[in-house]
Design brief:
Largest sheet: none
Order of helices and strands: HHHH
Shape: flat
Strand content: under 5%
């Protein structure tokens, strides 16, 4: 059984690099529910912060009269992401999936 200190150290390590499956960490199976709840809580906080940041950017763009330009930039960024995804699909030999991404039929 892991100690409270072990669990808090694991959480702190995950916060520094949250790209791995926290609740699936080997040796912490008995704490899976707590770790999952911690991950859900942090992800919700990060989403809320990102949403607030987007709202602030939108408000400032509206205030200075460049909201249309901001919308175009966001669409260009999204299109670039779709192109990147399509290229990755093509590199994996998945031409149909690349076509689906580029034609707007969604991610695969």
């Amino acid at each position: 059984m892991k100690t409270r200190r072990d669990i808090e150290q694991l959480k702190a390590g995950w916060l520094r690099d949250p790209l791995w499956d926290l609740e699936g960490t080997e040796g912490f199976e008995a704490h899976q529910d707590e770790l999952r709840q911690f991950r859900f809580t942090m992800e919700a906080r990060w989403r809320a912060a990102a949403d607030e940041g987007e709202r602030a950017i939108d408000a400032e763009a509206e205030r200075i009269g460049v909201h249309g330009l901001l919308r175009l930039l966001r669409e260009a960024e999204a299109q670039q992401g779709r192109h990147r995804d399509a290229i990755l699909h093509l590199a994996e030999g998945r031409a149909h999936d690349a076509w689906r991404v580029l034609s707007g039929h969604g991610e695969t």
